[in-house]
Amino acid sequence: MINAVECLISFGANEGDLLATLETVVDLMPRFGFEFRSVSRPIVTEPIGGPAGQAVYVNAAIRAQSQLSADDGIAGLLALEAAIGRVRQERWGPRIVDLDLLLHGSSTVRSGTICVPHPRMTFRRFVLEPAVEIAAEMVHPIANVTLAQLLNALNDRGPAIGVWIANEKQAIELSRSFEQLKREKPLQVRGAQDDFPAAKVEAFSILPVASLDDASAIAQNVRLMMYSSAWDEQIFNVACGPLWRFESIEEIMREFSTIFAAMGHQVSSKE
Question: Domains of the chain by range and CATH?
């Protein structure tokens, strides 16, 4: 056990009685090591990624305190999911409940399948909007900005993405591959907001980043900064907005469409 820390948890579900499931999660949290503090209003979002034909999701954010470590906290949330009846079958497939530990105080953990803060939370609008409602002042320990500032970055920054990889040649090759991808297979951002400046992926550009100086120069102007694992230590010196850590160029190309959809996703409240 550790001293109680502030935790932020995301809730998502698109099967069963969605609002009743959210209430059940809140009721059961103390049994799994979390002291409930507050919950956001639920929002309704279209599914991103995964199999076609899924029902809409209800998403929310839950704020809690816990004396569990980040690792044990994740284990507790998995046990809570199982208690409600979740059976994991397909990535990004339909689910009766999905609980992610977004923040665990100022902890940064990356060990095997354990990753805190959640690796995709900084650019997922359907995560940030409910999170900001109840935890706007919480600080992302890698991006070094508040959740409110992360959401503002998605709303206000220009349509460019910085990609920080090991060498300039790879960065330029990725930029060229992305431009070719846009020409050959335009990627529509499903559910993009009308006021989202880049509702179509074609409006985005890739800015190659090959050095710390390059990253420092553009970090405050890009919608998202992608960085490879080779830059784990340096990212703390320049991060000031949405981030995503990738393992390979292939991973970036594979996930482009879901990344763009998450940044521009339209949400609506569900009372």
Answer: 5-138 (3.30.70.560), 157-269 (3.40.50.2300)
